[in-house]
Design goal:
217 residues, mainly alpha, single chain, 71% helix
C-alpha cells in the first residue's frame, strides 16, 4: 500500500508539473521500472494493489492534469518549438569556436552574436545541456560528455546482481540524461544536487561496506 501511494504521488506530481518532457519521461520511467523490477518485487496481491492505485492516478491525471499539457501540443506543433531554432544557432556557435569553445559561463552573452533579429528574446541557456557544454568548452566538453557516458556504462557492467537501489538510481540518471536533450536540467542547482546524489548511489562499490566491516573486526 505504501509503495502504491508513493507511485500515486509521483505520477500526479509529474503530470501536474505540466511539463511535456516530464510527463512523457514519467511514463517511460514507469515502463522501464516495470520491465526491470516486475519479476523481483511482490506477489499477486501486492501487484493488484499497485495496479489499482496506478489506474486511479492515471484517471485523475487524465481528467485534471493532462488536459493543459495536451492542449499545448494541439496549439503548438512540437517541431515549431523555439528550442529548435536555438539548437540551430547553438550549433553554428559550436562550429565557430571549436575546438576551444567560447569559455565556461559565456553562453548567454556570446549567443547574441548568433541570435537572429526575429528571435526577440533573451536566451540564457541552449535548452540542451550537451550543446551548451560543447558551445562553451569545445573539445574539452566533448571529452567530459564521452567520459561520463563511459563511466555510466561501466556502472551497469559492474552490477553483478540485482541491487534495487543502485538500479533505480541508474534509471534516474538515464532519464535525466534524456531530459537534458531538451532542457537545461543540469544548470538548475536542485536538479544537479539530485543528479550527483543518484550518481553517488549508482557508482558506489557494492563490496565497500563488507570490506570496511572486516577491517574493523
Amino acid at each position: 500500500i505504501i509503495y502504491g501511494l508513493l507511485t500515486l504521488l509521483l505520477l500526479l506530481g509529474a503530470i501536474f508539473s505540466r511539463s511535456r518532457a516530464g510527463a512523457f519521461l514519467s511514463l517511460f520511467a514507469i515502463l522501464l521500472s516495470s520491465i526491470t523490477f516486475a519479476r523481483h518485487v511482490g506477489g499477486k496481491q501486492a501487484a493488484g494493489i499497485s495496479v489499482t492505485l496506478t489506474t486511479i492516478a492515471t484517471g485523475l491525471a487524465v481528467t485534471i492534469g493532462l488536459t493543459p499539457v495536451l492542449n499545448r501540443f494541439i496549439a503548438l506543433d512540437p517541431l515549431e518549438d523555439g528550442r529548435w531554432e536555438i539548437f540551430e544557432n547553438t550549433l553554428n556557435g559550436i562550429k565557430t569556436f571549436f575546438p576551444v569553445g567560447s569559455g565556461p559561463g559565456t553562453f548567454p552573452d556570446v549567443y547574441r552574436a548568433f541570435q537572429p533579429i526575429d528571435q526577440m528574446k533573451f536566451i540564457n541557456h541552449a535548452h540542451n545541456d550537451y550543446l551548451e557544454l560543447l558551445f562553451e568548452m569545445g573539445l574539452a566538453g566533448a571529452f567530459i560528455i564521452a567520459s561520463f557516458l563511459a563511466i555510466y556504462i561501466y556502472g551497469w557492467v559492474k552490477l553483478d546482481r540485482m541491487h534495487f537501489l543502485q538500479v533505480a538510481a541508474g534509471i534516474s540518471i538515464f532519464l535525466i540524461l534524456l531530459h537534458s536533450f531538451v532542457d537545461f536540467n543540469l544548470h538548475t542547482p536542485a536538479n544537479m544536487i539530485f543528479f550527483a546524489f543518484m550518481c553517488g548511489i549508482f557508482l558506489r562499490k557494492t563490496g565497500a561496506r563488507k570490506r570496511s566491516r572486516r577491517h574493523i573486526q
